[in-house]
Structures
1.
Amino acid sequence: MTDLLPPIQTTARDDAVLKALAGFVRREALGPGEKLPTERILAERLKVSRNTVREALTRWEGLGLVERRQGSGTYLKAAVSPDMLHMPLTLAGGNDFAGLMATLEIRRALEAEAAALCAIRAGKAELAEIERKLDLMEEAFQTRAGMSSDEDWEFHQAVFRASGNPLFEQIIAAMYEMFHRFWEHPLGVRDFGHASFPYHRTIFNCIAARDPDGARAEALKLIATVEDDLKRGAANLKLSDRR
Amino acid sequence: MTDLLPPIQTTARDDAVLKALAGFVRREALGPGEKLPTERILAERLKVSRNTVREALTRWEGLGLVERRQGSGTYLKAAVSPDMLHMPLTLAGGNDFAGLMATLEIRRALEAEAAALCAIRAGKAELAEIERKLDLMEEAFQTRAGMSSDEDWEFHQAVFRASGNPLFEQIIAAMYEMFHRFWEHPLGVRDFGHASFPYHRTIFNCIAARDPDGARAEALKLIATVEDDLKRGAANLKLSDRR
DNA sequence: GTGCAGAAATTGGTTGGACCATTGAACCAC
DNA sequence: GTGGTTCAATGGTCCAACCAATTTCTGCAC
């Protein structure tokens, strides 16, 4: 009963532009990295002002679907389709220890679930991809004698992708970014993340063995080590300088 | 080694405008529903073109932070702060059963964790608030002989708030909105959510008894009933009309 | 004074045209 | 090849005007 009879749209130029553009992308089968028509061309073809085109593209840019490079052009950054659903999530950033712990609690919940789902759903190709990332990570660990956050993150991303639910990757990416925003040096803990290393392999083993509950349990252990590192770091911080 | 030497930013007019505006909102202590200065005023004060102001506001509008009403003004729709993190979530081809299930999987993970944390952390006042919402929900259930999604949602929100982690509420709210966007009628299932009713009380009991594992288990059962309803709905849909 | 229709002012939405800043390719001297 | 220079293409910004929806004011009838 609530919103039947939605308000009619007498004007919706921007949306119309985006709809047309999404259709264009589909027809031309454009993928990430490919170049869109220039703003001037779009304005002319769609019979709208270039300014309107720009507002529409600004929306897509804000959604991370598109990247504009001055002097070069506008490029697709993600797959777009006419029937996408957008859900902007804005997080009030807590720039303190509590904020970090908050992101970790979200990670704990999602990471465990994703690992479990992955153990159920991952196909052969995805399993191989996860193992490849795992090997890369372990190699980096040997070489540099410590955790490499890039390879580590790629491993986790591969797991999220294989979970069959794109939301996992997107949401945890937000947590990850939030986590790294005020964490250039991990609060003075030198071997941050070191303890988490072995659990990557155990998680993979559970996934490969199609053992959801095991994968969930190992993921929880992994997050627990990170939480522990964080708490140690907070203790260090409290000792050294209280800004 | 990865991203030292980040690309320098020579111009960032839009961002500068938004930063200034966020500062303004904070200084004036503006909250949701309140009116922002007009585009013309902003352009004049910030010494930028009105066009630039519009592109900046378009970004905020796309993020759902602001609402523009022609002839009236621009109004705040959510709390904004200078240190927000924006994470637009996009679900490709979300208008189908798979999209609904995707949001539910996120809910399953977060809802269980939030309930467990709540059982650990909720204070007396928060506990009372949750029980109040529970009573309201049960009353509405008796009166209307069915689940009321408003009261139901308020109960869950109260739990998230008492979890001590604001991210739970924010993220699940986004899932909730996405869920309801293509779910006017619950796919032909008349008593949608009916089966979930008793678990609200059992969740609360576990929380009040400080039993995190129990709360988690009951929350999982609740989500399971919703998933079940959803699957029944999908089956109905497949039988009736295949558009 | 009250109520209400119509005028006027306000405000976001759109347009067209102009110019600036950056990019990338073509070209040239060495 | 290397390193500059030129030049066209492209996104970024600005301006001035007008359109469309909304709000506010005005003045008249009662």
2.
Amino acid sequence: MTPEDLAAAIAQAVDQALAAGQLSVGLDTEVVVERPKNREHGDYATNTAMRLAKANARSPRDIAQQLADRLRAVDGIEAVEIAGPGFLNIRLAAAAQGALVRTIAERGSDYGRTETLAGQTINLEYVSANPVGPVHIGHARWAAVGDSLARLIVATGATVVREYYFNDAGAQIDRFAASLDAVARGEPIPEDGYRGDYIVDVAAEVIKANPELLDEPREKTLEVFAHDGIELMFTAIRKSLSDFGVAFDVYFNEREMHASGAVEATVQKLREAGHVYEADGAVWLRTTDFGDDKDRVIVRSDGRPTYFCADLAYYVDKRERGADKVVILLGADHHGYVGRMRSLVSGLGENPDETLEIIIGQLVNIRGGKMSKRAGNLLTLEELVEAIGVDAARYALVRSSMDTTIDLDLDLWASQTSDNPVFYVQYAHARIASLLRNGAELGFPLPDLADIQLELLNHEKESELLGALGEFPRIVAAAAQFRAPHRVARYLEELAGTYHRFYDACRILPHGDAEPAPEMAPRLWLCEATRLVLANGLALLGVRAPERM
RNA sequence: GCCCCUGUAGCUCAGGGGAUAGAGCGCUACCCUCCGGAGGUAGAAGCGAAGGUUCGAAUCCUUCCAGGGGCACCA
């Protein structure tokens, strides 16, 4: 019996009580089933009776009593107790608990998937680093979190389009080209230009491909530097991300959008909606009508649209391509953008509460290692991966809530010890894989599921492990719904600990030549079920689940 | 000045209204005739402050204090 099955049974008990006239008002929300922290409170607990108390004007314990009587009759429920202010503490029969192993084994890599968000199409944009420099640590967090979030959303039944906005228009491109041009000519880089070793490398490559370039008029060289430089940067960016295990479904070109007239069309739409006025030679949108603190320019006095005008056109494009919801991951340094963008969307006559979700994440600081002491240049994604590896990097970046600023300790994440959380989780997986290999070699492969007696899994540590495994689908669903991949990481760490405690207390393979005890066959399957959940969870984070390490 | 995020154990962090607030590291004391000790057991130690809402608040609201980030006809 899974927690979901139990929740359904409780809901049914409520319905029966309603039908029997014991209750006059039902539940207005889903049944809440939780694992009590204290084992004496049973395998599961529900606050259903307390939630029903007020609307029915009855005492919670009184309602709990009636629900308990009905639940005791449910197959698989061994005991129901009323405790505290009106909790129902429920204990499952060992066989009902053990049956979870069969569920997990049968679903395999699908265990954890739900249909929670089925039917939705979500456009998820993240990273979108400008092609004027390498992917650095500031982007890496969104690469790790965004990719994991995409996997989570897929696991809850929704359709995801992973999107990268390739920002190849605007003033930063001009500054980038000017910087390359200056370096190539041996001139000082302009005040507002880009510095860094990569500028020198890119300039050299462009010159290599166009040996005569510097003989051309400056107008022409800037054009070539812009075009070829962006091309080179973009290739490098895609390679860094791909080496990091992150790929996108759509790489969207800003330049093409301008060329297609989509930006113009969006301005026209806003004009028709009546929120536009002209002042100081520029075109303004009256975003103050939608709660912004001041109006915003959408077309500059020189006739070029501003970046958020383009961003709005981009939003429209995503919606027209079928996105029910446009989700964008941004760093905290962009938080001022949220209100503006919401106002712009409102200006189009859409409801940003329903169609736009901008997730603001806090930034990443580096500690430890030699990288943190370097002046000037930011740590690049490539350097991060070189320092601690892809698994540790992804795990470290995805393990904290996005609301928390991360202080990344490179020495810790590079270490191959249990201090390092990613090793703790991967180790548990490798340990189980090794155990199953040993078992097969000793003549104890995983037996046929139909032949094992799952009710023998009645040891306290087995019960705790089963309980933890049963939580997985709800953890995944909540992580997707709250856009909080770190919950999966934290869960895996707990699961690894729960497994180690079980392992410490319960013998799985026989000693030497001894005959296997009857509970060993189901235990092997319990191990396999745990391994599957660890592997499925790590996959959602984009981290490998090693067979040995 | 205005806006956003954060403040939980010595350190790094979980905890999205429920029972006695958790984990890892560090510290103290333990467990190897035993399937991977990269493990486990036990212990000391905490919600920034003050109000409020609620049967019940680390969680929601208000104020204050402290730290971080932001407030362009740049992106």
3.
Amino acid sequence: MPRATINDIARQAGVSPTAVSFAFNSPARLSTTTVERILAVARDMGYMPNPLSRGLVAGHVGVLGLIVPQALREIFANPFFATLQQGIGSVCDEHNLGLLTLSPQNNSLELAIARAPVDGFIIVGLNEQHHEVLPLRKRGIPFVIVDGDAEIAQSVNSADEESAYAAAAHLLEQGHREVLILAFDMPHRHLDNIFYGVGARRTWGYQRAFANYGVEWRDSWFLPTQGSVEGGAQRFAQALDEGYRPTAILTASDLIALGVLRAARQRGIQIPNDLEVIGYDDIPVAELVSPALSTVRQPIMEKGRIAGELLVAALSGDTGAERVVLAAELILRETTR
Amino acid sequence: MPRATINDIARQAGVSPTAVSFAFNSPARLSTTTVERILAVARDMGYMPNPLSRGLVAGHVGVLGLIVPQALREIFANPFFATLQQGIGSVCDEHNLGLLTLSPQNNSLELAIARAPVDGFIIVGLNEQHHEVLPLRKRGIPFVIVDGDAEIAQSVNSADEESAYAAAAHLLEQGHREVLILAFDMPHRHLDNIFYGVGARRTWGYQRAFANYGVEWRDSWFLPTQGSVEGGAQRFAQALDEGYRPTAILTASDLIALGVLRAARQRGIQIPNDLEVIGYDDIPVAELVSPALSTVRQPIMEKGRIAGELLVAALSGDTGAERVVLAAELILRETTR
DNA sequence: GGCTATTAGTAAAGGCCTTTACTAATAGCC
DNA sequence: GGCTATTAGTAAAGGCCTTTACTAATAGCC
């Protein structure tokens, strides 16, 4: 049994399809009794106007797209995204929008973007020059970049270089010289230069700190790490097995740091006495675990909220191109001395 | 500048719109050189076929809808939903689908459902008889109910009554007689009878335990509570102010229980010595906090995964109507003696 | 009672794409 | 060299809805 269409309702109610459309969209154009008759028939048959057709003629569907170059499963496991979505969600709530979360499809983010029935995109972790993003620019579809580089497009970022500098400087200041860095693993390697965006800025910050304190920078102590508790635990354990003996660790995210804590506990490494650890993000659990995690706090929810607001403004024709940079601060808890 | 359509590309490439469509969807129908010429023009103009039109003729858009009767902001703040979405997300990843999360729009969930450009729904916390759900049944749009009652539709639930019984029985067994229950606050009050689904089943379980242990059931000790840390903290503090002196507490969710822990700490109440607390869900933080939370573990991720799989099966024509009930178990940690 | 204004509705075009049925041209074959 | 088979494309219909321009009937008015 195929779904009832506007024509079925029209026939059943003895009116034209136009009248059915009016009953839903401009009931004032019809007499009250006709509107009621039409709506009663519609209710009877469970009819609702097809959102796709409606969107096609209206030019919008009331959905924001959130594009992330990681699997949905990982996104929803990551408190960073949960908090970011809270921020975006608060804007959606206000404007009666839905939030469509999208991952690569058949390993192609471009495909996912092309197929998305949305009014605009919030894109996390890509630059405006990425080949997935270019078509949007050419096509004039509104989007906002979060945690990525942008010269032309709108973007929201944190002060990554400064905060990375602060974290590294703190450890070097304490006299640490064997500092291991568990960095992002750049899920998005298809560009010639994988060194962009958040990862690049943080690395510059670290390197600047090392230079300032006269400490040699060793690429071999900079280890790309999968961004999860499991990933952090494994990478740290592996590093130990390979002979690394760090006295301090900087991680690209709190999740990775939590993994380090777990692996350290298993190996009997005392934190912060044997090893100091600084995470990044300040996700809610960071202060709940024991020892409480020292970390760099970035205003994630704010990031999402601003990104949402910029996008909503763009959807209603605002063509400004803001590039917002939010402050981040070092929070010292119990994984540092 | 309006967006390029298939006709613009056709004109520019000197072919018919049909040819452009073929270039994207069935390139074998065209010569290689033509396909390349068309795709080059498309790339140049940032053209991608409009997902709405495509969806309209294809009959599907590759998006699952997740419907929750709470604000998006709250959903993304709630680890229960994060884990549920992880489960659903793993199915989406596998089948190249997006996940559209939807909240009431203008206070109407029905409106949100009507406007959603999706292929099917996962509906959390409503019954199949709710007026929001009825049109989907009549219209034949596939959906799966999670944490709600269903006789006809597909559904995924936990063994709520049994696990609530077990939690209450454990406390009563220990001799507690002043047991406060911080229950769901039923955001969805529009039905005559607000007593349905998860909340109702758990309450039956509690009541059965009270009856079995010969303890009087007092409605006044059953307090609807907003499902967040803040909500739990406030409700508990308010109860104390009103003169309640519970020796044990059962909560509808771990978030509420975490709120109780926080408020208890502020008031100098020792847990578990002065007060035993049992949460519900076993969200990841439950075992990280101190004291670690005793709770009822339900397989949330599994719930999401199964709901996703049932829906995907329904989308490909599987008309079975499974009603899955997952086991839940009492986990005793440090908030019970 | 004849004119204008309003009310209640319809017909047709258009939003953007895909698919089916067709045509024209070339290739293959003995 | 004339037939069939294949290749490369096009025209037109159709997916479901909304909006614009129109018509017909009624109401209002002096």
4.
Amino acid sequence: MLMEEKLVVKELEQGKELANQLMNSLNNPSSSSKESNEVLISEILHCFENTIAMMMNLDKKALKRSHERSDQSNKKRRMLEKKKTEKVNICIGSGQEGTLLDDGHCWRKYGQKDIHGSKNPRGYYRCTHKFTRGCLAVKQVQKSDTNPLCYEVKYVESHTCDITQSATKHSLPVSEEAEQKLHDAKHSDDTVQHMKPEELMLSIEDLDYKKDIFRTFSFSNHEMDDDFLEWKDLMANLSPTTSESGITNEFHVSPTDDSCFSSLETLLGSTPDLSWM
DNA sequence: CGTATTTGACCTTG
DNA sequence: CAAGGTCAAATACG
């Protein structure tokens, strides 16, 4: 069984367990509150959301594989499928090493490679939510040969998980520090004004990428992956939207509403295993 | 014990 | 065939 399939089974088992809890709760109204039932319902819905997202990701992969097998002349396809990549050169001042910062996303290292003609190896990172949310964001980080304080960061695909994780724990490479500066600089003019020139020097090669970074940090993705939008629409349809049920009217979700998760988050409060929301 | 990183093997591409 | 990219088992870490 594939890793993703195991996660799907795990998620469904959790959903089953939660449904059982809800059933017990409904059978014993005296020992349960309306609020606890609402939390259970939300968690069950959350399991569905996760499972569907994972299945869509699996389906996408399977389709891709079958196409690759059947399509003999797929050169044009490959040209069209070429992944969106953005390159960023980041230089940091000497006094900043050792400070743990993040770029608002959780990255997980999945490989490192010595690059022909380069002194420093290249690190390969993918989004932590690759399997749980189907986020395809990937980045490559390589220390510059000429300037040890400079890093070449290549982003492949943008995040579809739409999550910022600045308050969570991180184990990031040094280069992440510079990236945080990059994002901070974009996010706040004050930051730029107060930053000494020797502390931060950024070189962005692509203007579109600047926009992308800002979009990520302002919590609004306006150019999201088609599949993700499709998934969101599906979620919106699955989630109760009427106020008649009484229980569920607190998490009304419209298909065009970017904050479809935040309403659930509000309802669920600090439920530990929903912290990613 | 669960999660993240390391690293050699394997796959893909030119 | 070489170089870059990814996978996954082993290992480290909190």
